[in-house]
């Protein structure tokens, strides 16, 4: 039987594609330019004279952060920092966590799938002018204006304000023993990667987070809206909880009856301190 013309055309297309693929397999392509990454704004020029630290930002905008308010950054400033947390495990949602030698904070970005470009240890340069800074429940955050409060910036705005630098070094990330921090000094470590050694997670034998059904309101351990709180250790610390999303890759992990060591991002919502695990291996049995 004679084949219709579109079959013959399809055969020609497949043959051409295979020839192109074969040429690529022979190494007939350009080596990617890793100094010019395909993410962010490569036109941003690093200027040491414009750079500020996270601690300087927190001090300058302390009043709006503490009031859970926000303000626009109008000065031509830059921030150089290292990524210490991203959305790879599904527990940090539309945010990244950054740290420099002086402090740490959250960056709100209305996008998912950030981790391939902003992996832990990746150094970035942020053009701060026109971004907003404020306090989300007194948690310092960079982002944009949303309903009169600090919120997430759009993905396009973020990419115009960030440059991915060639430096990637996880060894430069400081980890703070959170139990050694005095309550009077805890606010300084808001947003830091912290460690809690030999701590008992409450509700042993249960899952970190139950399955969430769309359209329902989840109420579990005093939390809601798709997040679950478990107590950590004694109540001696200021309302310290482990905060886990029902969408996290490790939500079904069963809480052991023995103490564990936990690594995570120390965030706060008003007087409650919330530890955000980044990935399953942040819990060491």
Structure report:
This protein is α+β, with helices and mostly antiparallel strands and 285 residues long. The longest helix is centred in the N-terminal third of the chain and has 21 residues. The strands form 2 sheets. Strands 1, 2, 3, 4, 5, 6, 7, 8, 9, 10 and 11 form an 11-stranded mixed β-sheet that branches. Strands 12, 13, 14, 15, 16, 17 and 18 form a 7-stranded mixed β-sheet that branches. 35% of the residues are buried. The protein is globular, with a radius of gyration of 23 Å. Helix content is 14%, strand content 33%. It has 2 domains: 125 residues, Nucleic acid-binding proteins (OB fold (Dihydrolipoamide Acetyltransferase, E2P), Beta Barrel); 110 residues.
Provide a short characterization of the protein structure.
The chain contains four helices and 18 strands.
Rg calculated over all Cα atoms: 23 Å
| First-residue to last-residue Cα separation | 67 Å
CATH architecture of the largest domain: Beta Barrel
Q: How many structural domains are formed by the residues?
A: 2
Overall 3D shape? globular
Number of strands: 18
Runs with pLDDT <50, length 5+?
A: 1-32, 215-223
Output the CATH topology of the largest domain: OB fold (Dihydrolipoamide Acetyltransferase, E2P)
In round numbers, the mean pLDDT is 85
Order of helices and strands: HEHHEEEEEEEEEHEEEEEEEE
Helical proportion, percent range: 10-25%
- Percent strand equals 25-35%
Largest sheet: 11 strands, mixed
Which CATH C-level class of the largest domain is it?
Mainly Beta
**CATH homologous superfamily of the largest domain - what is it?**
Nucleic acid-binding proteins
Structural class: alpha+beta
Number of helices: 4
């Amino acid at each position: 039987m004679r084949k219709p013309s579109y079959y013959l055309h399809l055969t020609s297309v497949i043959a051409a594609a295979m020839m192109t693929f074969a040429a690529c397999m022979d190494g007939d392509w350009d080596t990617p330019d890793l100094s010019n990454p395909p993410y962010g704004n490569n036109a941003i020029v690093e200027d040491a004279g414009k750079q500020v630290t996270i601690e300087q930002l927190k001090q300058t905008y302390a009043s709006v952060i503490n009031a859970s308010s926000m303000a626009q950054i109008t000065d031509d400033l830059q921030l150089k920092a290292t990524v210490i947390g991203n959305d790879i495990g599904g527990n940090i949602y539309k945010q990244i966590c950054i740290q420099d030698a002086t402090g740490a904070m959250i960056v709100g970005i209305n996008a998912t799938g950030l981790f391939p470009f902003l992996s832990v240890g990746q150094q970035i340069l942020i053009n701060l002018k026109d971004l907003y800074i404020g306090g989300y429940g007194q948690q310092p955050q960079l982002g944009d204006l949303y309903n009169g409060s600090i919120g997430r910036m759009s993905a396009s705005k973020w990419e115009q304000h960030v440059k991915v630098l060639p430096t990637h070094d996880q060894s430069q990330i400081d980890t703070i023993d959170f139990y050694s921090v005095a309550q009077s000094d805890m606010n300084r470590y808001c947003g830091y990667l912290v460690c809690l050694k030999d701590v008992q997670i409450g509700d042993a034998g249960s899952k970190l987070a139950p399955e969430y059904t769309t359209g329902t309101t989840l109420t579990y351990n005093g939390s809601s809206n798709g997040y679950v709180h478990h107590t950590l250790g004694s109540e001696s610390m200021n309302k310290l909880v482990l905060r886990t999303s029902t969408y996290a890759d490790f939500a079904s992990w069963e809480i052991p009856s023995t103490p564990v060591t936990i690594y995570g991002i120390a965030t706060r919502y008003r007087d409650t301190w919330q530890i955000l695990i980044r990935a399953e291996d942040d819990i060491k049995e």
